[in-house]
Design a protein that fits this description.
Elements: E1 14-19, H1 23-34, E2 38-44, H2 48-56, E3 62-63, H3 66-72, E4 75-78, H4 82-95, E5 100-103, H5 109-115, E6 124-130, E7 150-154, H6 161-172, E8 177-181, H7 183-211, H8 215-221, H9 224-229, H10 237-246, H11 248-271, H12 274-284, H13 287-290
Parallel strand pairs: 1-2, 1-4, 2-3, 4-5, 5-6, 7-8
Antiparallel strand pairs: 6-7
Length: 292
């Protein structure tokens, strides 16, 4: 386990490097700069266009190549698509000395498997701030995206206590509610509460585009309910295909159950059994108790 600078978790105005200046990385940059946690933000991105946009929007103070940015920072936040993280995270851990590294990806098992035996594993904290929108890129970054949302810390016992203290302090400064899960539980629950929602939205959008060929009518008649249901269908495939690839088994499990539920509704409609249909909707209404 690598050495952690024990002064880090007492310090504000930190130098933070964010790798991947999109919706999540850019929104974190805004928040951490506004609340004083970060005093200087370094942007690192494969796209110079993204970095130029981030400079113009003042999301970052400067951009640097990967090796220079990592060495100049005290905290490194990996906010790329999850497929890129599989290569980037080991590279970043190879470069760090006493810094702390986190990722903010939506899947964890495959990523954590790649660094389980890395000598700097203790300096890395796996996290998932549960927030987002259907938009992408530095132009999508917004203030307050994470306020009062849930931040999941994964396999926390594998990280050095000082690294955990720093990361907890960061998320509490936003503020976010912190939950701890192991990697398998995280990926399963993410499939249920996030990943299936996106697949359902993609499928509904394709259904409407297939059956309703009159785009003008879709635009004219789409109510707030329809718009909110298909909102996630605007999400980038560059982000979501890697998530579905890495969390395939859990997503399949959830998708099978979702298909079963849809089949129940279809069967009841065929049978004109609206009494049972009513009961199922009433059961579904119980979600209000959980999602106040």
């Amino acid at each position: 386990m690598g050495h952690i600078n024990t002064d880090l978790h007492f310090k504000l105005n930190m130098t933070v490097a964010i790798i991947g200046i999109g919706l999540i990385g850019g929104s974190l940059a805004i928040t951490l700069k506004e609340n004083g946690f970060a005093g200087h933000i370094i942007g690192i991105d494969a796209s110079q266009e993204n970095l130029d946009k981030a400079i113009r929007r003042r999301l970052i103070d400067e951009d640097m190549p990967l090796d220079e940015g990592v060495k100049a920072a005290e905290l490194i936040i990996l906010a790329t698509p999850v497929d890129a993280m599989l290569t980037l995270l080991p590279q970043v851990l190879d470069l760090v000395e006493d810094q702390v590294v986190i990722d903010v990806g939506s899947t964890k098992a495959e990523l954590l498997n790649t660094v389980d035996m890395h000598p700097k594993r203790g300096q890395y904290v796996a996290t998932h701030p549960m927030a987002g929108t259907e938009f992408s890129g530095p132009e999508a970054a917004i203030p307050n995206l994470f306020d009062h949302k849930c931040a999941v810390l994964i396999d926390a016992d594998r990280s050095a206590p000082e690294a955990m203290t720093l990361v907890r302090k960061m998320y509490e400064s936003i503020p976010m509610t912190i939950v701890e899960l192991d990697r398998e539980a995280h990926d399963l629950h993410s499939a249920y509460v996030s990943h299936i929602s996106h697949i359902s939205s993609f499928a509904l959008a394709l259904t409407v585009l297939e059956k309703e060929r009159d785009e003008g009518r879709i635009f004219e008649l789409a109510s707030g309910g329809f718009s909110s249901t298909v909102r996630l269908a605007k999400s980038s495939p560059n982000m979501w295909i890697p998530i579905f690839r890495q969390n395939r088994d859990h997503v399949l499990d959830v998708l099978d159950e979702h298909i079963n539920q849809l089949a129940r509704f279809r069967s009841l409609l065929i049978k004109k059994d609206f009494d049972t249909f009513y009961q199922l909707i009433a059961q579904a209404n119980d979600i209000k108790r959980i999602l106040r």
